[in-house]
Design brief:
Elements: E1 5-9, H1 14-23, E2 27-31, H2 42-49, E3 57-62, H3 67-76, E4 81-84, H4 90-94, E5 100-107, H5 117-123, E6 129-135, H6 156-159, E7 164-166, H7 175-182, E8 186-189, E9 194-196, E10 199-200, H8 202-214
Parallel strand pairs: 1-2, 1-8, 2-3, 3-4, 4-5, 5-6, 6-7, 7-8
Antiparallel strand pairs: 9-10
Helix pairs in contact: 1-8, 2-3
Amino acid sequence: MSSTRIKFCGFTREIDVENAIEAGADFIGFVCYAKSPRFVTPERIGQLAAILPSHITPVLLFVNAPASEVTAALAQAPGAVLQFHGEESLSDCERFGQPFWKVARVPVGNGAAGFDLLQFNQQYRPAQAILLDAKIDAYGGGGHSFDWTAFPWSHPELNANHRLVLSGGLNPANVTDGIRLARPWAVDVSSGIEQSKGIKDRTLMLDFYQAVRSAHT
C-alpha cells in the first residue's frame, strides 16, 4: 500500500497553515461556504494560500455555490483543487476547468442506509477524487463517522483509479484503522485536529500525520 496523502481542512489563521506545513500536509482546505464557522473570504484565501509551498495544493470547498463565488475564490488561488460538497451535478463541477473532488455524503449508521458508492463513483468518474463524508445537517466538519464496513473497498471499480478520500470523524486515534480498512488514496480531517472550530492544534496535526504513516508499517 502506497503512502496515503493527507488533507487538513478548515483553516482561518496563518499560524495554523504554517503548522500544517510543518506537520506534513499534502492538501490544505479552505471553506468557501458562508454558513460554516470556518468560512473564509476570497481575499483571506489569497492571504493564506500565499503561505503554501509549491508541493502543497490548496483545496477550495463549496456548497451549491454560484459560479461567481467559485470564480472569485479561484482568482485568489489559481492552482487550487475544487471540492464540491453539495448537490452539484457533473456539469456544475466541470465548468471551471479545474481538477475537482466530489463529496459523497454517506448516511450515518444502519450500514450507510443503502448508499450506492459504486453508482456515485460512476456518476462522477471525471473527478480527481471522490471524498466520502458523513451526511449530517451541516456540510462537513461535524466530527461524525459513517459505517466504514458498509462498502466493498476491494471492489475493482473502487480501486481502478485509486482516488477515494476518507473523511468524517477522523482523528489521530482512529485514522490508522480507517486507512487499513478502506485503503484510501487520501484522508481528510478538520474537527479532529482542532482546539475549537477553525482553530487548529499543532500537536494534533503532528499526531495525525504520524498515525497516517503508522498505517503503512
